[in-house]
Amino acid sequence: MSSYAGPSAPRPESVAETLRLLAFLAAAIALITLDHRGGWLRAWRNQAELAVQPLWMVAGLPGRMGEQMRNDAVSRSQLVEDNAVLRNALLVSGARVARLQAAQAENERLRALLGAAQRERLDVQLAPIFDIDLDPTRQRLILDAGSNQGVHVGQVVIDAGGVLGQVIETKPRTSTVLLLTDPDHALPVEVVRTGMRAIVYGRGDHMSVANVPRSADLKVGDVLQTSGLGGRFPPGFPVGTIGKLRLDDSRAFLEGTLVPAAQINRGREVLLLRSLPTPTAPAPAKLPAGPTPAMGAPR
Amino acid sequence: MITRNPWLLMLGSFTLALVLMLLPLPPPLAPLRPPLVMLVLAYWVLEAPERAGLGLAFFMGVITDLAIGTVLGESALRMVVLAFLLDRFRPRFNFWPVWQQVLAIGALLVNDRIVAAIVHVATHAAPIPWMYWSAAAVGALLWIPLFTLLDTLHQGRR
Fold it and tell me: CB A24 to CB B54 under 8 A?
């Protein structure tokens, strides 16, 4: 062999290695496609995630222990202070609840007069959040409660402020919540002030209400609540406040950025709505019949 | 001794890296979280190529995807690319001075971010916030301590 053979033919093992690379790349791309489109892998992924659950448990431990230590280390004077603050808060909410109950009783009486069915009562279940960091570009939460605790797919997740998201996966011990801010999420809402309907889309780290005609009566500071259309979310839960309004790229529609009503980022526990208003509408083609029988009845 | 068995050490290092990837960080620090699973993979590709190849990279990628909730296959793709590039450099890598190794790891991690960004564009996912590119620098700086640690545990048994 000459000392300089020019660009030599690639060695067979390097060819084999390249082929292996191509095979693995193809497999990875196939996985991405399958998982991204149509979610054909969902059942399989659900099973496989059971295998990584111990990791979640372990990673969630420091958060839980930290909370335990905070609870243990809190001083007496601080407890007294907290107690006073909470007592005041309880008094205020008690007064508010009393007023609301009067309003609700009146509401029910009026509904009965109209012949509409009763709305179901709010029944909630408290579920702790697993304190672990997931991929920052996907807005998910892992709850420390699963199908063993009665959580099921489609349940609405709220906190004291408002709607947080919905349960999209359950396993025996944990469940996954899709937050309103996830790009995959869209939520039918209405403006409290005007009753105008719109859709709120997740944008990754915030939410926005899009495709609102320029002529629409929408202002900064308007409060949006769930409209109940679509049948998944019950009506009347706060979603957020319009923080910024601007024209979108086509300059024909308004786009508003929302300040969420719920504490999307922080919080240790969430509430799961137990009673779905109706068995969720199976077909999207169904008329926008209301989530409660009340809206289907003659008004 | 746990280090008696190299497979055990490998399993342990990957498990620990995965747990550290999931550990909650205060929000201002979260973008700086280095891709630990990738660094551990890099060590094993360099030091035990007979055990750690593209297959292991793919497998660890799928596990990472499941654990941190990315699209299935995203991390697998990224780790296979990293393992392949690193395997090409392997004969030369160990002869480089330390700063050059750090630079090389940094370049690989930046390349990895680019691959991730491409996947995000292709799947119409939300783009990665700019702050997260700094994780590549943190990862490169972490390479020396991580390499020393794993190498002591790995070679120390002999």
Answer: yes
Q: How far is CA A52 from CA A46, A177, B65, in A?
A: 11, 17, 10
> How do beta strands A207-213 and A197-202 pair?
antiparallel
Q: Give the nearest partner residue to B63 out of A21, A52, A135, using CB atoms.
A: A52
3-state secondary structure of A6: coil
Amino acid of residue A133 = D
Distance CA B44, CA B14 (A): 10
Residue A210 CA to its chain's centroid (Å): 18
Q: Are A216 and A199 in contact (CB under 8 A)?
A: no
CB A136 to CB B58 under 8 A?
Answer: no
CA–CA dist A106, B69 (Å, integer):
47
- A120, two tokens: 């179901």
> What single letter denotes the amino acid at residue A137?
T
Paired with A259 in beta bridges are: A241
| A21, containing H or E segment | helix A12-36
ipTM: 0.81
Comparing alpha-carbon positions, the chain B residue that sits nearest to A28 is B73
Rg of chain B in Å (alpha carbons): 15
What are phi and psi for residue A108, nearest 5 degrees? -65, -40
Query: Rounded to whole angstroms, what are the CA distances from B154 to B90, B96, B144, B146?
Result: 18, 21, 15, 12
| Chain A neighbors of B21, CB-CB under 8 A | 133
pLDDT at A289 over 70: no
User: A207 by DSSP, 3-state: which?
Assistant: strand
Write the DSSP assignment of A247-282 as a string of letters.
Answer: E-TTSSEEEEEEEESS-SS--SEEEEE-S-SSSPPS
> For B27-84, what is each residue's pLDDT tens digit?
778 888 888 999 999 999 988 888 888 889 999 999 998 888 888 888 999 999 999 9
Best mutation target among A49, A65, A133, A176 (most B Cβ atoms within 10 Å) is A133
The answer to whether residue A298 scores a pLDDT higher than 70 is no
* Predicted TM-score of the model (pTM): 0.72
Residues 55-114, chain B, touching A (beta carbon < 8 A): 55, 57-58, 61-63, 66-74, 76-77, 80-81, 84, 87
pLDDT at A2: 44
Closest CA to B146 of B1, B19, B35: B35
**Chain A contact set for B61 (CB, 8 A):** 28
Reported as a single tens digit per residue, the pLDDT across A195-207 is 889 999 988 778 8
Specify which residues A156 forms β-bridges with: A166
Q: What is the average per-residue pLDDT within B149-157?
A: 80
Q: What is the pLDDT averaged over residues B107-129? A: 86
